[in-house]
Design a protein that fits this description.
The structure holds 2 protein chains of 2 kinds.
Chain A lengths: L1 H8 L3 E6 L2 E6 L4 H10 L5 E9 L7 E9 L4 E9 L4 E3 L8 H12 L2 E3 L24 H12 L7
Parallel strand pairs in A: 2-5, 6-7
Antiparallel strand pairs in A: 1-2, 3-4, 4-5
Chain B lengths: L30 E6 L11 E7 L2 E8 L7 H6 L3 H8 L7 H16 L5 H30 L3 H21 L8 E2 L2 E2 L7 H23 L3 H7 L7 H6 L5 H5 L6 H4 L20 H24 L19 E9 L2 E9 L5 E7 L1 H6 L2 H5 L4 H11 L3 H5 L1
Antiparallel strand pairs in B: 1-2, 2-3, 4-5, 6-7, 7-8
The chains are: A alpha/beta, B alpha+beta.
Chain lengths: 158, 390
């Protein structure tokens, strides 16, 4: 399967295995097309999860991951791509509707924008929340400090 | 099995609910936007559902969640692997044992160790007991939402017997923290096997008792048949798992498809439904309880002797890498995606919660139904808000 896509996309795609789990490391530009191909031609019809990991020291700070499963092949695969801070990535909602809430959660927690998402807004945190908590540089005390400064007129609640 | 979602017409579920614009076919109708929850007894916690109604007919819904958000994934980044273990119990607090099993197995896989055989058996017994307890809690509250009060008392009475076993085993009834990375912390107490066997003989007639209350009850049938129907195609496209997926006719259970622990050693069936309605989901869960009893019966008779803890170092430091491991929790696929940077603390822990993903299907299941059916459908999806919000 990977051979086929490699000849099609060249160096933009890399197939790796760790602890018996297969994953594809792909270039960001391939993202909507490759995911669609995986669903349509390789029968990965179930999108298990969409998530991200933050590496603040890297140039491209975020790993975005799609965990896919195929009922027909009984096989799981991860697709992984790297994007820079502030960059956006294509939404997979039109491929798997389940990606809707999952992408909203990634946006909520990491601030990664998904192009073409029908309703990209915070899901777990309140709308007025500042910052994205699962970023490694997120200051947990910031919210607390600001609130006490405005509402209680003291420097810090800690 | 051919791929059911290759069709281009994916369901228009979970599309954003446009609260301003009226629906075209209902221009002359009496549209109403009402709030259900967050404080509502039938939302099983703090879930707010914005309902767009035409009289009693539901035109669309939007779920507002996050009221119970505690930042479990962020907490994990600031704790060691061992310290994070009890936190996972607090996500789906009705099935704490399953959460712990998934987490411990994921870390074990990352470290390339395996729990010894005896620990595996203990794990399976407790996890399946927990599945029964979770389904009992679901049945009682779901039936109560629909108006049947008696099943609640029956199921809570019988669930007590399971909680007693948990309490005797590890001292806790709900958030058990029963397993450790590498095996189990506690050896079984004297009489554990007997207690479990006694429970099985005690519980077998009780399931029949639940069924006499509901399965052919006319009110129950009226309230559940053809309510909240979801097709297999839509269920897969929406990532729905667990009993909800199986009730739509997809024979898929991670215990069989991608076996973990030592489930491959046991003989059991995957119950499935045909219509994907609330009644089928009820039947599937009832049958699942019977299958869990079968597994426990086989496991309790075959617990091998030996150690209960594998060769795991005192300080848990998995090598650099990442892993996705999932188990069949009572509510569906519960997955852990863990990234290790080689230190004692996980670099990232992502929990793939079954309730969160299944709740997304609420919209497609209740469109066109009545307000009273929303209550039935929320109950039948079997959500735990602690897990939805994490």
């Amino acid at each position: 399967m990977v051979e086929k896509y490699k000849s099609q996309y060249g160096s933009g795609i890399d197939a790796l295995t760790y602890l018996g789990q297969n994953y594809l490391s792909v270039d960001r530009s391939l993202i909507p097309d490759l995911l669609r191909l995986l669903r349509d031609e390789e029968q990965f019809d179930y999108c298990v999860d969409v998530t991200a990991v933050h590496y603040p020291k890297r140039e491209k700070q975020f790993d975005v991951l799609w965990i896919l499963y195929s009922f027909a092949r009984n096989e799981r695969i991860r697709v992984k791509t790297q994007i820079a801070d502030g960059a956006s990535i294509s939404s997979a909602v039109s491929i798997w509707p389940t990606a809707n809430w999952l992408e909203r959660e990634v946006y909520d927690m990491f601030g990664i924008k998904f192009d073409g998402h029908p309703d990209l807004k915070r899901i777990l945190l309140p709308d007025g929340w500042k910052g994205h908590p699962l970023r490694k540089d997120y200051d947990i005390l910031l919210q607390d400090k600001e609130w006490v400064q405005i509402n209680l007129g003291i420097e810090s609640g800690q | 099995m051919s791929s059911p979602v290759n069709d281009k017409t994916l369901p228009n579920a979970v599309s954003n609910l446009d609260l301003e614009a009226p629906d075209k076919p209902y221009l002359d109708s009496n549209e109403l936007i009402i709030n259900m929850g967050p404080q509502h007894p039938a939302t099983h916690g703090v879930l707010r559902v914005i309902l767009k109604l035409d009289g009693e007919k539901v035109l669309g819904t939007e779920c507002v969640i996050g009221y119970l958000h505690r930042g479990v994934e962020k907490i994990a980044e600031n704790r060691t692997y061992t310290m994070f273990n009890p936190y996972v119990d607090r996500m789906d607090y009705c099935a704490a044992v399953s959460n712990g099993l998934g987490y411990c197995e994921a870390v074990e896989k990352l470290m390339n160790v395996e729990a010894p055989a005896r620990a595996q058996y203990i794990r399976v017994i407790l996890t399946e007991l927990n599945r029964i307890a979770s389904h009992q809690l679901w049945l009682g509250t779901h039936a109560l939402d629909i108006g049947a009060m008696t099943p609640l008392f029956y199921t809570f009475r019988d669930r007590e017997e399971i909680l007693k076993i948990f309490e005797k085993y590890c001292g806790a009834r709900l958030t058990t923290h029963a397993f450790r990375i590498g095996g189990c912390q506690y050896e079984t107490y004297a009489g554990f096997e007997k207690d479990v066997t006694n429970f099985l003989t005690f519980f077998a007639p009780k399931i029949d008792e639940y069924e006499t209350l509901l399965t052919t009850n006319r009110i129950w049938l009226e309230r559940t048949k053809n309510v909240g129907v979801i097709s297999a195609k839509d269920a897969i496209a929406l990532g729905v798992t667990g009993p909800v997926l199986r009730a739509s006719g997809v024979k898929w259970d991670i215990r069989k498809a991608l076996p973990y622990a030592n489930y491959s050693k046991f003989d059991f069936e995957i119950p499935i439904g045909t219509n994907g309605d609330t009644y089928d989901r009820y039947l599937v869960r009832m049958m699942e309880m019977r299958q869990s009893m079968r597994i426990i019966e086989q496991a309790v008779g075959g617990i091998p002797e030996g150690p209960i803890m594998g060769k795991v170092p005192k300080v848990i430091k998995p090598p650099v890498g990442e892993i996705y491991h999932s188990i069949e929790a009572p509510k569906g696929e519960l997955g852990y995606f863990i990234v290790s940077d080689g230190s004692t603390q996980p670099y990232r822990v992502r929990v793939r919660p079954p309730s969160f993903v299944n709740l997304q299907a609420l919209d497609i299941m209740v469109r066109g139904a009545l307000v009273a059916d929303v209550v039935a459908v929320i109950g039948t999806i079997d959500i735990v808000l602690g897990e939805v919000d994490r």
